Predict the 3D structure of the following.
Amino acid sequence: MLLEARDLRVSYGDVEAVHGVSFHVEEGELVSIIGANGAGKTTILNTVMGIIPSRGGSIYFRDTEITALPSHIRARQGIRLVPERARVFPLLTVFENIMTGLYGLRKSTDVPSRLSWIYELFPVLKERAKQLAQTLSGGEQQQLAIARALVSQPRLLLVDEVSMGLMPILVEKVFEVLGYLNKEENLTILLVEQNALASLSISHRAYVLETGTISIEGDAGTLREDPGVRKAYLGA
Amino acid sequence: MSNYILTLGIFIVINGIVACGLNIIVGYAGQISLGHAAFFGIGAYTAALLATKAGFSFWMSLPVVIIVTGTVGLLLGLPSLRVREDFLAITTIGINFIVESIFMYVPFFGGALGIGGISRILFFGTRLREAGFLALAGSLLALSMLCSWWFARSWTGLACFSIRDDETAASSMGISPVLFKLIAFMAGTAMAGVGGSLYAHYMRFISATDFGFPVSVMILSMVVVGGMGTLWGPVLGALLLTVLPEVFRPLTEYRMLLYAALLLLMIRFQPGGLLGEYSVFRNLTRRLVGRGRS
Ligand SMILES: Nc1ncnc2c1ncn2[C@@H]1O[C@H](COP(=O)(O)OP(=O)(O)OP(=O)(O)O)[C@@H](O)[C@H]1O
Ligand SMILES: [Mg+2]
């Protein structure tokens, strides 16, 4: 198992936002967590990345416990996050933003070929390479955030709400890219989305999160047919 | 008169070196420090003690000064860099006051009388007076700027910039915030030490109040006014804020008030400083020269 969370609890101050959640991601899988606003999706991803400490439970990555490790060590082990609202480095250029993803890996990476691979995925980033990231549009910043996370060839990619603020055609493209990376490049992805239809269509499995508790889990195809899920998240 | 100009030039250059150091901490790594004068002082006292008690020349003591200030910077930075921004401001002010009182009250450091009789700098047997000293200090400023320039282009610099922009995002890219803040703190304080060493050997008499909190505010003002995170900003700031008080001598009493007002005005209207990304100055030069990056 690549990632496993057991009975994870996370609080903000005295308020518990995630109440004992367990989930896992196998190598090569694309798994979604869907849920309404405030359900705790971002909280879970940030806890897996090590940005927020957990109050209880444990996290395992490649069968080793990482619950107590700081986020930069988890990143070094191959976990990368595309954060909610992109959070690119505003005063660095697009190129520099991408290079931060390679920190500590430049010796073991063929940087030019990695860069051309990234630019092939997101051609707009090549055009804007010298521009400050804060001058990019929201959609371009999302693409940059994905590029920055991908350039290191992560073992596990955590993706938080990439579709936010993107025009429909770009949402489609981003999901196409994620699906492609999972299928063709064997990249393991844990995806968090409000756009349940789009994420379920490329996922193997999914978890439905309701106010900090997992209510349903199963095969993505089965969930798409589930009447409760359809009613609550697919608008049908 | 000409000696007066040379002396002023020497102060500009020394302040420029110290401000370059602070720029690495504040401008590159984004860590506020209101106690930079403490490290300027540690450099000056180290050089002064080595000169008066051990007979070290400027040249012999310089490497020691760099190592001592850098190490003290690292040690004092260790606890303070783990706290959040507003606490960091207060912690660094505290460091400044503690260091100043140690110089002031511990007899080993000369107490309230300070340390006098510090030797002049010898350069191939000649004593450096105004012009020669300015040339030497200028070369060390150039060297400091070269280091800053190199730092800004290195991977370490990139890591610092990313922490300045978004610490959380940086750490999820595998960049350790604590490590790089400490590196920036160490490099910046070591540079302040170099400035301190020059100061001690130029003044030949130093005392604790030369390195008090007001000096820290002045140095920070230089960095903010000139442009945080730019190469030339701290030097321009040092030039302006060393010359202006001389021009407005009668207002000396209000110096602190003016610095504070200047800081607030800059932060309100020109947060990037005079040489920052969207500053008046940049726009002007861009219009005149066409385009360009500093
Ligand atoms: N920094 C914080 N301080 C206090 N409470 C927080 C904080 N961040 C999130 N919360 C609370 O925790 C709960 C879960 O928030 P979270 O951001 O994980 O939701 P989400 O599922 O990602 O929602 P969305 O779909 O809107 O992004 C919410 O009730 C939210 O108000
Ligand atoms: Mg969220």
